[in-house]
Amino acid sequence: MEILPEFELHQPDSVATAVKLGAQTGAKYLAGGTDLMPNLRHGLGDPISLIDVSGIADMQAIENTAMGLRIGASVTLQQLVTNPLVLANYSLLIEAANTIAGTTHRHHATVGGNLCLDTRCQYYNQSEWWRKSNSYCLKYKGDSCHVAPNGNVCRAAFSGDLAPAMLVHGAQVEIWSAKGGQRIIDLDDMYQDDGANSLLLKPGELLVAVLVKPLPTFNTGYRKVRVRGGLDFPLAGVAVAVQGRGNKLEQVMIALTGTDSRPILLKGCDDLCGKPLDDAALKALERLVRTQTKPMRSTFIPNQYRSKVAVNISRRLLLDLLMR
Amino acid sequence: MPTNSKMILRVLVNGIAREDLIPVNMLLVNYLRDVVGVTGTKTGCDGGECGACTILVNGEPLLSCIELAARVAGKQLETIESLAHNGRMSTLQRSFHEQLGTQCGFCTPGMIMASEALLRQQSTPTDQQIKTALEGNLCRCTGYVKIIESVRTAIKLNGDV
Ligand SMILES: Cc1cc2nc3c(=O)[nH]c(=O)nc-3n(C[C@H](O)[C@H](O)[C@H](O)COP(=O)(O)OP(=O)(O)OC[C@H]3O[C@@H](n4cnc5c(N)ncnc54)[C@H](O)[C@@H]3O)c2cc1C
Ligand code: SF4
Ligand code: FES
Ligand code: FES
Predict the structure, then answer these.
(1) Which CATH number fits domain B91-160: 1.10.10.400, 3.40.50.720, 2.60.120.330, 1.10.150.120?
(2) Count of CB atoms within 10 A of residue B120's CB?
(3) Distances (CA, A) of A32 to A199, B6, B11
(4) Nearest CA in chain B to A98
(5) In whole angstroms, what is the distance from residue A171 CA to residue A187 CA?
(6) Beta-carbon neighbour count of residue B144 at 10 Å?
(7) Contact A157, A148 (CB under 8 A)
(8) How far is the CA of A164 from the centre of ligand 1 (A)?
(9) Rounded distance between C-alpha atoms, residue B23 and residue B26, angstroms
(10) pTM for the complete prediction?
(11) Cβ separation A37–B67 shorter than 8 A
(12) pLDDT tens digits, residue range A189-233?
């Protein structure tokens, strides 16, 4: 007997065929498989068919377009960090991508898979027998949440490292479906704060490419805190782009991951601009992070630590980038 | 295109062309161990977390425990068994053996295949590059220092040739 459930495997070579297959009941897209395969091995999901999108040429290209740099969803993280166009203007994407999983994973893990990553929780990313012994949970097969037992929303954390970096670069996503053709939306609008349903993609919709714009006058950086120095998902991660003069902020964008069921593009950052980054401004930044993020008890590490560390890495990274 | 639950898989495993009837949902590591019978590749975790199952596919490292055998059709696979020639260990294998980079040995096939992938890309990597290449490979025995020394020894031996 095989470890994985039974499914059909399709390996289309065009987006048109992929979305036609993806429109069928029980279809699931498969890219690098570095998130989906461990989940299927844990009995998380029972797809009727897997639609392998890793071999579709249109989804593997990186090219300059009128709308910015277009990165195909099936570009691997290894291809991303070695691509000349990305190296030239998008060091933030490279910095974030290099913190994802391990080197071997990055040879196969894709940009699209990373942006569509399933949310994570200490009660969810467990084997079938573990979850069964614990009466499952709201996110899959169960009817209550072990993190917030009184609530009726799953609070599993979105833990992808690329999303905050992409958000800071003003990313838009190109989404295709069999019925609707193509639509382009802000990456920020692809997510909602519901751990059991964090992607605002309709069944069968395929993420085909991401469009990002350069930030030539900004200093950018990514920082993440995790249990081990390698391999681990972020307990909290932050991407920052800052433009300033001396210790004065002129423009700043900040986005976080690992704290909520969706990546957070911090609102109200304009209030920090036009004045020096002094103690009062850092306090104001702390308030922005505290009020807009809410880590829950979804990791073994206490959520209070994640709240505190989200503030501290945001503060330190902003200071470091402004002084650079 | 395999659409039924079984398919014929054609691959090159350690230089030998194979043709096997396999279930579509078969994991690559199980294909290698149970169908081909090359058992050097290990499984150390329940999916993607330890690197013990690392092999090379068209020269790139891959975790065979989270890959479908069906998806490597037409490709060139290399496992730890491919490294020794006529009973003589490769420099990496010999270095791991002599520098105590292997103790219980369970992580070793994965460590060596990930190191092999690195050295083919970059013949004189820095310590940091070695650590990055092996960041997904866990070892419960050696404490890693001996592993890095083993790779460094192999680099030196390769340079002496
Ligand atoms: C040990 C380990 C450590 C990890 N550490 C990190 C980490 O630190 N940071 C991090 O961000 N990730 C981490 N990951 C998760 C994963 O490796 C990466 O997020 C990777 O980028 C996922 O990409 P993939 O192509 O492998 O996705 P897949 O597993 O193929 O797919 C992931 C999900 O996205 C969907 N999907 C894929 N492509 C598309 C598409 N084009 N359109 C619509 N839906 C799509 C799939 O259906 C699936 O639900 C880790 C994984 C492991 C096993
Ligand atoms: S947050 Fe609650 S519902 Fe969601 S995965 Fe965790 S325990 Fe399950
Ligand atoms: S057995 Fe493949 S990563 Fe552990
Ligand atoms: S030698 Fe025992 S796990 Fe590495």
Answers:
(1) 1.10.150.120
(2) 11
(3) 18, 22, 19
(4) B132
(5) 6
(6) 15
(7) no
(8) 15
(9) 5
(10) 0.97
(11) yes
(12) 999 999 999 999 999 999 999 999 999 999 999 999 999 988 999
Contact A230 B136 (CB under 8 A): yes
| CA-CA-CA-CA dihedral for A94, A110, A101, B105, to nearest 10 | -130
Q: Domain A219-322: which CATH class?
A: alpha beta
Residue appearing with tokens 């294998």: B93
Q: How far, CA to CA in Å, does A283 sit from each of A91, A237, A311, A314, B1?
A: 28, 19, 10, 12, 58
A307 three-class SS: helix
Q: Which two tokens stand for residue A159?
A: 């833990």
- CATH T-level assignment (fold) for domain A59-116+157-212: 3.30.465
The ipTM, to two decimals, is 0.96
Q: Where are the domains of chain A?
A: 59-116+157-212, 219-322
Phi then psi for residue A245, to 5 deg, are -135, 125
Domain spans, chain B: 6-82, 91-160
State which fold the B6-82 domain adopts: Ubiquitin-like (UB roll) (3.10.20)
